[in-house]
UniProtKB/TrEMBL annotation:
InterPro entries: Dihydro-acid_dehy_C, DiOHA_6PGluconate_deHydtase_CS, ILV_EDD_C, ILV_EDD_N, IlvD/EDD_N, Sugar_Degrad_Dehydratases. One of its GO terms (molecular function) is metal ion binding. This is Dihydroxy-acid dehydratase. Its EC number is 4.2.1.9.
Length: 590
C-alpha cells in the first residue's frame, strides 16, 4: 500500500486484527501463518484480495488461469495487497453431465459463502468457460465487495485444410457431413479437434466469448480484457494490471453495486446484439440483474436490443474467430461504434471511468471484422421476444437467420414474417435421438421441430438441445435446418435461428406440455406470437387431461443438487436463479 492511501479499516481486519477479541483474532491468524505469511503482513492493514480460481484439470477452458494467477498475485503485491487464491466449484461446459448449466447456481452459492465468510476485502474473478462468468459476477453482486473480472481469453483460431474451424460451430457443421456420409468418423473427430488448438475458451462468439464481452460491457473488467486470446502476451499483462487495479478498488470502495446498474445492464444487452452474442446471455444477464437488484423484464431484449445491428463478423453469425476480433479492437472498438451512434448509456466501470470514456477513439482497425454502425453486417440483429399459447416468453436470435431459412419460411409476400407448419414434438434429447430418423414421423421441409422437458426443472439446469438437426434423409436432400422451438437452451456456438428459453417450461405447466405431434403451429415474428392453432375448448380439454395425469412427466433426480435446484429454481425468463437467493443483497454489509 502506498503511504498516500487513506487509512481506512478494512473488512479483513475484523478477522486478523480485532482489538475487542484477541482470542478470535489469534485463532483466525494462526492458521494463515502456517504457510509462511507473517503476522506483520496480516496485521498491516493491507487489503486481502481473493483470486477466485475457476481453472483446474477438470475445467480446461479456464485451466491457464492457474498460470495467469501468478501475474495477478504479482499485480496485487505490487499495489500493496495480499493475494489469497482459492478454488471455485468447477464448471466445464462440454464435460459436465447432465449439463454444466446445472452448476452455475451451485458455483454461485459456493462463491457467495467464500466471499462472505472469509477475510477478503476484494476479489479477482477468473472467468472463461460459459457459466463461470455469470456464476462469478452473480456472487460478487450478492456479496458486494470490490470485484474485478479477469477473462481467460479465447483459444487461438482453429484451422482445417485452410479453413477456420471455430469451437462448437464446426461440430454442428461437420456432424451434418458425417450424417450425409461425406466424411468418416476419424475425419469428423480430427476436424472437431482442430478447433481447439491451444489453451483458452471457445474461439467463436459462443456463450464464453459472449459472456466475457458482456462482463466488459457491464464495466466489470478492464477495457480490452475480454478478447485477448489466452496464449497472447497481453493476457499475462492484463492479469498483472487487473491484480494491481483491484487493490485500488478496495481503497476507493468501488463495489459491484456502483457498477451493475440498470444502465450497465442495458449496455450489455446493446453490446450483445452488436457482437452477435449467445442466446444464453438472456438467462445470465437476467440472473446478474436479479442478484444486483436491478429490475429487468425479458421484453427489454427486444425493446432495447433488437434494433441494434450486428457489427462483429465472427462465427457463428459471421466468418472470423477470436484472434481477428482482438486484433480489430475487441470490445472497446465495438463500444466506440455504439458510442458514436448514441447508443451507450452512462455507466461506471472498474477503472473508475465510464464505458464510453474507456472506448473513446478506439476505431476498429479491421473493417471486415468490426463493421461501422452505419454499414453493419446485419441490421436489426438483436433478439426478438415471442409469446402465445405455447409460452409466455421465448427468444429468437435473428442475426443467424440464413438465406435458406428466409427463402423457405419467410418469403410469402402476403405474410413475409410468419410461417406455419406441422409440429413434431420430442420429450427431451434422448427421445429426439431415438426417433428423429423414424420415417413414421413424416418430417419434411414444412415441419416444425419441438423440444420440451428441457427447461430448468424438466432437465435440471436446462439442456442445450433445442437446435435439432433434421433427419438424415432430409439433409441428403439439401434441407439443412428446420425451425426448432423449445423450452431448453441452444449452444451459443450454434448458428440456428431457434426459438428458445421458452418460459414457463412444460415441466411447470407451460403451454408446450399441451402440444401434440400433428398440431399446426403458427409463428409470427412481426407480431411476436407463437400459437398452437387449436380451439380454446380443445386447449382447455387438454389442460384438464394433463392435470388429471399429474402434469408433465420428466425424469427423476440423480444427485442431491438436482433435487435441491429443482425445488428452488426460477424459469429462464427470470434468469434461472434460485428463488430464495435473490432476497440476499449486498451481504458483506450485514
Ligand atoms: Fe468451455 Fe466453450 S466449452 S468455453
Ligand atoms: Mg454452451
Amino acid at each position: 500500500m502506498s503511504s498516500d492511501k487513506p487509512a481506512r479499516r478494512l473488512r479483513s481486519q475484523e478477522w486478523f486484527d480485532n482489538p475487542h477479541n484477541p482470542g478470535m483474532t489469534a485463532l483466525y491468524l494462526e492458521r494463515y501463518l502456517n504457510f509462511g505469511l507473517t503476522r506483520a503482513e496480516l496485521q498491516s492493514g493491507k487489503p486481502i484480495i481473493g483470486i477466485a480460481q475457476t481453472g483446474s484439470d477438470l475445467s480446461p477452458c479456464n485451466r491457464h488461469h492457474l498460470d495467469l494467477a501468478k501475474r495477478v498475485r504479482e499485480g496485487i503485491a505490487a499495489a500493496g495487497g495480499i493475494p489469497f487464491e482459492f478454488p471455485v466449484h468447477p464448471i466445464q461446459e462440454t464435460g459436465k453431465r447432465p449439463t454444466a448449466a446445472l452448476d452455475r447456481n451451485l458455483a454461485y452459492l459456493g462463491l457467495v459463502e467464500t466471499l462472505y465468510g472469509y477475510p477478503l476485502d476484494g476479489v479477482v474473478l477468473t472467468t472463461g468457460c460459459d457459466k463461470t462468468t455469470p456464476a462469478c459476477i452473480m456472487a460478487a453482486a450478492t456479496v458486494n465487495i470490490p470485484a474485478i473480472v479477469l477473462s481467460g481469453g479465447p483459444m487461438l483460431n482453429g484451422w482445417w485444410k485452410g479453413e477456420r474451424t471455430g469451437s462448437g460451430t464446426v461440430v454442428w457443421k461437420s456432424r451434418e457431413q458425417l450424417a450425409a456420409g461425406e466424411i468418416g468418423y476419424d475425419e469428423f473427430m480430427d476436424i472437431v479437434a482442430s478447433s481447439a488448438p491451444s489453451v483458452g475458451h471457445c474461439n467463436t462468439m459462443g456463450t464464453a466469448s459472449t459472456m466475457n464481452a458482456l462482463a466488459e460491457a457491464l464495466g466489470m473488467s478492464l477495457p480490452g480484457c475480454a478478447a485477448i486470446p489466452a496464449p497472447y502476451r497481453e493476457r499475462g499483462q492484463i492479469s498483472y494490471e487487473t491484480g494491481k487495479r483491484i487493490v485500488d478498488m478496495v481503497w476507493e470502495d468501488l463495489k459491484p453495486s456502483d457498477i451493475l446498474t440498470r444502465e450497465a445492464i442495458e449496455n450489455a444487452i446493446i453490446v450483445n446484439s452488436a457482437i452477435g452474442g449467445s442466446t444464453n446471455a438472456q438467462i445470465h444477464i437476467q440472473a446478474i440483474a436479479r442478484h444486483a437488484g436491478v429490475p429487468l423484464e425479458v421484453e427489454a431484449w427486444q425493446e432495447i436490443g433488437h434494433k441494434i445491428p450486428l457489427l462483429v463478423n465472427m462465427q457463428p453469425a459471421g466468418k472470423y474467430l477470436g484472434e481477428e476480433f482482438h486484433r480489430a479492437g475487441g470490445v472497446p472498438a465495438v463500444v466506440w461504434e455504439l458510442v458514436k451512434a448514441g447508443k451507450i448509456r452512462k455507466a461506471l466501470t472498474v477503472n473508475g471511468r465510464t464505458l464510453a470514456e474507456n472506448a473513446e477513439g478506439r476505431e476498429s482497425i479491421d473493417r471486415d471484422v468490426i463493421f461501422p454502425y452505419e454499414a453493419p453486417l446485419v441490421a436489426d440483429a438483436g433478439f426478438i421476444v415471442l409469446k402465445g399459447n405455447l409460452f409466455d416468453s421465448a427468444i429468437m436470435k435473428t442475426s443467424v437467420i440464413s438465406d435458406e431459412f428466409r427463402n423457405r419460411y419467410l418469403s410469402n409476400p402476403n405474410d413475409p414474417e410468419a410461417f406455419e407448419g406441422k409440429a413434431v414434438v420430442f420429450d427431451g434429447p434422448e427421445d429426439y435421438h431415438h426417433r428423429i430418423d423414424d420415417p413414421a414421423l413424416a418430417i419434411d421441409e414444412h415441419t416444425l421441430l419441438f423440444m420440451r422437458g428441457t427447461g430448468p426443472v424438466g432437465y435440471p439446469g436446462g439442456a442445450e438441445v433445442v437446435n435439432m438437426q433434421p433427419p438424415a434423409a432430409l439433409i441428403k436432400r439439401g434441407i439443412h435446418s428446420l425451425p426448432c422451438i423449445g423450452d431448453g437452451r441452444q449452444s451459443g456456438t450454434s448458428g440456428s435461428p431457434s426459438i428458445l428459453n421458452a418460459s414457463p417450461e412444460a415441466a411447470v405447466g407451460g403451454g408446450l406440455a399441451l402440444l401434440r405431434t400433428g398440431d399446426r403451429v403458427r409463428i409470427d415474428l412481426k407480431k411476436g406470437t407463437a400459437d398452437i392453432l387449436i380451439s380454446d375448448e380443445e386447449l382447455t380439454a387438454r389442460k384438464a387431461a394433463l392435470a388429471k395425469d399429474g402434469g408433465y412427466h420428466f425424469p427423476g433426480n440423480q444427485t442431491p443438487w438436482q433435487e435441491i435446484q429443482r425445488m428452488l429454481v426460477d424459469q429462464f425468463d427470470e434468469g434461472m436463479v434460485l428463488k430464495p437467493a435473490v432476497k440476499y443483497q449486498q451481504v458483506a454489509q450485514t
